[in-house]
Design goal:
By secondary structure, the chain is an alpha+beta fold. The protein folds into 2 domains: 308 residues, Zn peptidases (Aminopeptidase, 3-Layer(aba) Sandwich), CATH 3.40.630; 117 residues, Alpha-Beta Plaits, CATH 3.30.70. The protein contains 12 helices and 19 strands. The chain has an 8-stranded mixed sheet, sandwiched between helices. It is elongated and about 75 Å long. This is M20 family metallopeptidase.
């Protein structure tokens, strides 16, 4: 999960305080989850779990930066080849693709996992610490990769019970937003032909829980640039622009919106239909200016829960400026540094949440109602521009053990049982979808 370049870790220790108060005690529905194919999925996941943990720890000890995932890709390819899958390497750099063909008519479904690590000098917090100085899996891609390999293993085990074709995409260079485009440009969708695509990312929720929502799951961020002709004294213009932009914000400065632990609050947080994390526009940075020989430019980063709102902001600003005393100086207004958003297909999202909930219990998968306002997105968005798909958040925290799976945070750690949860939930999801 890429975090906008200026964003630092936001949801750290305060989340420990809210734990399952918000999400409830996460339990699985034994009556529904231990029947038929899903019992086999759970049994086989249990059988391979320790080996998946070993894989995760190996990847964690030998992390590789975006574009440098040579060892990681080789390990992935070897594992998939040993499963007997058709494997293609070096797609868009170090990308690996595996194909599970049932040779029965059915859906074509893709699962994507990102495989790169991050550059960081922060010390590791686990015994199997990184051996590559300055590189660490602080975003959880080692977990994502291990889960995807586990899903491939489980679905290969039950291949005779499935229909259609399942593709596994192991994508390099997510952190620098180059990997997805590189794979697409290198002919990914000439090699495979999925009609649906899915992915997950670790989040600081309790282990055993996944969450998502239809359409955008993350807030939209855009940098607004306003250009004016220079005057002898630009102080009045500067004060006017700052006030104009600040007035666009509809969240009070003293709102609990700004306290990140509120994201998981039972009454105000993301999972409550009455959440305060919707219908918002905020100013994400101070208004800055830069003078040139004949012009002065103003910059402001805006954030909104509704991607369409920022376009109306441009019109609103332009209209007010043209009716102001500074109309003659006004030259242009435009967006810069736009963030490509993960946009979940509504029908696929609803069906996925309902399917997992029916198998593993109502509190295994939840729909979020709010929009996460911390500058996140993922280049999985580029795959979604080609194919409808769903991006899930997977809980990896264990508050009782002091484990908080907040990506990019200094104390990032993971309850490895989330590997088992991810393999079970999403193997079951894909198995059910092949029936349809």
């Amino acid at each position: 999960m890429n975090i906008t370049r200026s964003i630092q870790s936001l949801l750290i220790c305060p989340l420990i305080l809210v734990s399952t108060m918000f999400f409830g005690q996460v339990t699985k529905n034994e009556d529904e989850s231990t029947t038929g194919i899903h019992l086999i999925i759970q049994q086989h996941t249990e059988a391979i779990f320790d080996s998946l943990v070993e894989i995760r720890r190996d990847l964690h000890q030998y992390p590789e930066l975006a574009g440098e995932e040579v060892r990681t890709a080789a390990k992935i390819a070897e594992y998939l080849q040993n499963l007997g899958l058709e494997v293609h390497q070096h797609i868009g750099g170090n990308g690996v693709v595996a194909i599970l063909e049932t040779h029965r008519k059915g859906k074509k479904i893709a699962w994507r996992a990102d495989i790169d690590a991050l550059e960081t000098d922060l010390p590791d917090v686990v015994a199997f610490e990184s051996t590559n100085n300055g590189v660490r899996h602080i975003c959880g891609h080692d977990i994502h990769t291990s889960i995807a390999l586990g899903i491939a293993n489980v679905l290969t085990k039950i291949k005779d019970r499935l229909n259609g074709t399942i593709y596994f995409i192991f994508q390099p260079a997510e952190e620098n937003w180059q990997g997805a485009k590189a794979m697409i440009d290198d002919g990914l969708f000439e090699l495979i032909d999925p009609k649906e695509i899915y992915a997950l990312h670790l989040a600081p929720m309790p282990e055993g829980l996944i969450a998502t929502k239809a359409e955008n799951i993350f807030a939209d961020y855009k940098m607004i640039k306003l250009k004016f002709a220079k005057n002898k004294d630009n102080a009045e213009l500067s004060n006017y622009i700052k006030k104009l932009i600040h007035n666009l914000q509809n969240v009070p400065n003293d709102s609990p919106f700004w306290e990140m632990q509120t994201l998981m609050d039972s009454k105000l947080g993301l999972a409550n239909p009455n959440t305060i994390f919707k219908d918002y526009i905020t100013l994400n940075s101070a208004v800055t200016s830069k003078e040139k020989d004949d012009s002065i430019n103003f910059y402001a980063s805006m954030c909104t829960s509704d991607p369409t709102k920022l376009y109306s902001v441009l019109k609103q600003l332009k209209s007010k400026i043209k009716n102001s005393e500074f109309a003659d100086q006004f030259i242009d207004i435009q967006f810069q540094e736009e963030l490509t958003l993960v946009i979940n297909d509504k029908d696929l999202t609803d069906k996925a949440v309902n399917t997992i909930s029916a198998i593993y219990g109502n509190q295994s998968a939840i729909n979020l109602h709010g929009i996460i306002p911390d500058g996140r997105s993922d280049d999985f968005a580029y795959f979604q521009q080609e194919i409808p798909g769903v991006y899930f958040l997977l809980g990896g925290s264990n508050y009782e053990k002091g484990i908080l799976s907040m990506p990019h945070s200094p104390n990032f750690n993971v309850d490895e049982n989330c590997i088992k949860t991810g393999v079970q939930y999403f193997s079951s999801l894909i198995a059910e979808k092949t029936k349809l």
